[in-house]
Amino acid sequence: MFGPHRTNVAREIQTPKxxxxxxxxxxxxxRLRNPGTRTxxxxxxxxxxxxxxxxxxxxxxxxxxxxxxxxxxxxxLARGPHYHNExxxxxxxxxxxxxxxxLDRLLHMRLVDRTVHNLAGSAPRVxxxxxxxxxxxxxxxxxxxxxxxATELPEx
Length: 156
Hints:
Strand content: 5-15%
Distance between the termini: 54 Å
Strand order of the largest sheet: 1-3-2
Radius of gyration: 24 Å
């Protein structure tokens, strides 16, 4: 059934491009720009200014902050520097792999700083702390939590 004698079904089903009618052609979907080359928001892009904020910047911020453990890690690091195992225990993560992924993502976005302490006679310890950029995210998290509490739906 799946041996070399089986023909490629997908190739049989495809219609040649030349046989399509002009009405069947759809415009190609617009791709998002490379987030690293975003254009700055227009002057006065703040609320009430009449200019909308740059949507690609908002998209990128939400993409960075989305994730199951990102907020938990940021909130714990807002309380002060933590070593890896302390951070895993305080966030309640069952395994180290998700924490490593979150920390790598936050390090890449320069929200978290990593310091390796080499102690004589023992394994190196890694300490994580928020950068100034990471601290600038905390008011946004507070604002988001306040919005959610203010607009929470009543229970049925």
